[in-house]
Amino acid sequence: MALVRLTPICLLTYLCCFGALTSSVLGAKARHFKWEVKYMYGAPDCLENVVMGINDQFPGPTIKARAGDTVVVHLTNKLHTEGVVIHWHGIRQLGTPWADGTASISQCAINPEETFVYRFKVDKAGTYFYHGHYGMQRSAGLYGLLIVDVEEGKKEPFQYDGEFNLLLSDWWHKGVHEQELDLSVKPMRWIGEPQSLLINGRGQYNCTLASAHNSNGSGLPGCKFRGTERCAPNILHVMPNKTYRLRVASTTALASLNLAIGNHKMLMVEADGNYLEPFWVNDFDIYSGETYSVLIRTDQNPTDNYWISVGVRGRQPATPQALAILHYQSTTASKLPTLAPPVTPRWNDYNHSKSFSNQIRALAGSPTPPVINHRRIFLLNTQNRIDGYTKWAINNVSLSLPPTPYLGAIKHGLRNAFDQKSPPDTFEKTYDITRPPSNPNSTYGNGVYMLKFNSYIDVILQNANALNANVSEIHPWHLHGHDFWVLGYGEGMFSTKDEGMFNLKNPPLRNTAVVFPYGWTALRFVADNPGVWAFHCHIEPHLHMGMGVVFAEGVHLVGNIPNEALSCGLTGKMLMNKTYH
Amino acid sequence: MALVRLTPICLLTYLCCFGALTSSVLGAKARHFKWEVKYMYGAPDCLENVVMGINDQFPGPTIKARAGDTVVVHLTNKLHTEGVVIHWHGIRQLGTPWADGTASISQCAINPEETFVYRFKVDKAGTYFYHGHYGMQRSAGLYGLLIVDVEEGKKEPFQYDGEFNLLLSDWWHKGVHEQELDLSVKPMRWIGEPQSLLINGRGQYNCTLASAHNSNGSGLPGCKFRGTERCAPNILHVMPNKTYRLRVASTTALASLNLAIGNHKMLMVEADGNYLEPFWVNDFDIYSGETYSVLIRTDQNPTDNYWISVGVRGRQPATPQALAILHYQSTTASKLPTLAPPVTPRWNDYNHSKSFSNQIRALAGSPTPPVINHRRIFLLNTQNRIDGYTKWAINNVSLSLPPTPYLGAIKHGLRNAFDQKSPPDTFEKTYDITRPPSNPNSTYGNGVYMLKFNSYIDVILQNANALNANVSEIHPWHLHGHDFWVLGYGEGMFSTKDEGMFNLKNPPLRNTAVVFPYGWTALRFVADNPGVWAFHCHIEPHLHMGMGVVFAEGVHLVGNIPNEALSCGLTGKMLMNKTYH
């Protein structure tokens, strides 16, 4: 097997072709991008397949910016019949809630051949990504990285000599339109486990790079690459005795992942755009919607190369590990590592996962949470049936998004646009989370949690048993428009006495937090960002099946929403016909 | 093989469930329908596949109305991310051009979860159908029949004892999103011949109903049906010695078809909603976009049944015949015909096709064309390459539809909505139609042929050689908003002297006319219907690749276009922001 030099850095520098810089005050810049979204043929895992690309690239171009910059993406929809939006995952959209890129919530989907301009400030350095947020277009491959460096002249609280990006995703051979249908029919047809895991859009199906090692017992034949294949592995070219930052983001549709590097410990330093109190790990879990930065020291035998392996956690895996190569430049890139790839921890070793999650602390000096809350919302996560259709529901309400985006509807007082009744703040405390729902009926709904502006909100995410006995799944919940503090994780049913366990001293700020099977997760945030914000399980099929809620706060303070974001549904009607109300 | 009674009449009567009648003056009624479009699993040719259905039916429900009625379809888009429209093929939309159901032309596509109300008069009895007119949604299965009977108390110019509908289509196993992509990539990947032909949405793949006969030499095994299968054959249950009307419509994506019935001659009496001077045939060709009514007399041996066979014409067939059964009720429906199915004429026996087309005459007393024209537009049909992409072009312009529908754009004078330069009325007369284009470059365009209101327009459709040597394809051209008179067909390059051949006495009125390979077809119509009207090859991939033009006439006379039809593109912008112009 010959491997050419295909580095993620290539992807990064390529991006600059699309970015034109405009100077601005204080060194901040407006960075303009002209993007076209369309389907294209790709070969994410060597098998040719339809992918959703941006400017003929899959994954989409990496955006590089500095904190304080304004990113301006002119997004043109070149799909034939589908709308499209792009969500800038982790960017809080302070002052620009209409640029959050969530269909039905922040804007109308962009129609074919039309252009929408996303203009927003990246106020905080960190590792972010972007992705489709309409139907299951993220699963179709509509994603890419958004890297925000510190302001010019400022420093990170750690040092490194070089950096690499690893965008993790999972891949199905079945197209997303059929996946959407499968999840929507009665009885539901589960999409199953992904065929492949991808690193920067590259995976290998039906062959393994590590055929010399039987560590994974896959029995797969070795991949035969010349190195020019679109699915040839990622190679991270490093110099010995340096420190490198790996920025890792997971935009998987389903899979919870674990990443490890042969012989190299990793120092966790950033999560979701917030600095961590550094701690060393041999491997770490990453759930869909999360990002991490880790530092590695290239202090191992420089005449060898090392595997970077990514495997599945939390679900009985049916997908081989994804592999990349850490290549010490003193050797040749085509030399395969001598050591076997690191073995992913057993999928259901949740103690391993919890131990990792519980180690995550904010870097000293980070903002600390208010010590009180003004409102506590309990959200019971259940799998349910509605008229025989399998759904996910929160407090027995399965989210069914309306055609009019909430942001415009609330701002303009269009009461017919969605259920005016607020969904419940809690659930029956006698609910037995250890068994399949005894009354598995829930309802569709699209009501909104109206949050008092600037109030302190607690959310207790409560996991439960799914429809099948002895099954409770992992759900990584992602909040738009905010970071939240993760106050704690617990087992079983949350009870008030668990408050004593809350970490109010140095809880990490995140935008995504996992809820473990049969457990709970406690979050706190300040409802200080005028807008309407999705809060949902980041597992694409779960969201598609209704697993989310909508928060709104201070919408009266939202500035002028561009008409382009309002041209559908009742806001469109209202604007076109001023007599409508 | 046991066959149960599955008659098209079932489909017809089922429809009534969705139709509520509202009385109106003069016996005319408003017929209301509430439809939801979504993807569903079907098995059009026994293989399970995704189809686009209406109210969980594929094909969509048959609309039955009487001339003078108003049809009101409340169409709700239940697709996840795609827009949708429905075109009422053959209905002229007198006074309601915004209800023509052509995305980019008469209206904005309906967004997911939104409802558009199609309200239009069916002014003329006849056999019509409806279908998607956005992307390739027709190919996905979005179609159904629209049958308009004569007004109550009025009579057809022929008599019959019963009637059956045969909606013909072709079917691919590859989904339309992938087909669209295949046609759009460089180099183009041709979608190939259909896997199956369908009669009322039913075909049989990889098996044949007529295994007892080797007439088609298919070598396919016999189909094993219990009769309840969704792909079990259509059976037309007839009584001996009666006259039946068969209404036949073709909504194929690609295939030109021929229909024949064992031992039964057919009397052609109607085409595209216009009466014909009756003539007998043993078989007839039907191109995509056409409808015919034929009368048959059940005067054959009543102890036998007879095959109805449908086969491919004009392209080297790779698709087996579709078969249905004419069942004499004196026998059992499960008795297969003794005689072999009629053999479809050789695919390239164009003389057979031309002879049929030339026999078609309007019934005596039908409207006759003006004897003069005010403007003659020559439209050269060529296959071209633009930047390496394979396209079809008319006078070297490949139609690329704009995001703002023309109807609203013209009515409101939005000059940026489309090319203001009119496309050419003719082409270089030295063009050699017998060879591949020597200069195969054409351009994209979206200009409009502005027709003087009430003027008499001639169109000469001129066929030519495609990109490959010795290939010239059949193109059935369909005009929206009008019927036209088919003045004649000819071979080679049209020349003025060919005018002498024009039939001005009793040319048939049609909305679709075929252009034969290397030939021309001459049409005349009166531009008397205020609106903007597509005129295009009805082969779905050809239209997708640019094979169409746009006519506009009397748009200043168009009444108030519903805002819902204008909420996209520049009309949407204009209506939402009155300062735009």
UniProtKB/TrEMBL annotation, chains A, B:
Which is one GO molecular function term here?
copper ion binding
Give TM regions: none
Gene Ontology CC: one annotated term: plasmodesma
What family classification does the UniProt entry report for this protein? Belongs to the multicopper oxidase family.
Provide the alphabetized UniProt keywords. Copper, Disulfide bond, Glycoprotein, Metal-binding, Oxidoreductase, Repeat, Secreted, Signal
The record, for InterPro entries, names: Cu-oxidase-like_N (IPR011707), Cu-oxidase_2nd (IPR001117), Cu-oxidase_C (IPR011706), Cu-oxidase_fam (IPR045087), Cu_oxidase_CS (IPR033138), Cu_oxidase_Cu_BS (IPR002355), Cupredoxin (IPR008972), CuRO_1_AAO (IPR034259)
Indicate what this protein is called per its UniProt record. L-ascorbate oxidase
Q: Which cofactor does it need?
A: Cu cation
Under the heading CDD domains, the entry gives: CuRO_1_AAO (cd13845), CuRO_3_AAO (cd13893)
* One Pfam match: Cu-oxidase_3
Under catalytic activity, the entry for this protein gives: 4 L-ascorbate + O2 = 4 monodehydro-L-ascorbate radical + 2 H2O
Q: Which organism is it from?
A: Mikania micrantha
- Gene Ontology biological process terms in this record: negative regulation of defense response to virus; response to hydrogen peroxide; response to virus
